[in-house]
Amino acid sequence: MAIQISSEILEGVVLSALKYDDLYGYALTQQVQSVFDISESTIYPVLRRLKKNKYLTTYDQPYQGRNRRYYQLTDLGRQRLNTIVNEWHDFYQKVNQALEDDNKDD
Question: Phi and psi at residue 64, in whole multiples of 5°?
Answer without folding.
Answer: 50, 50
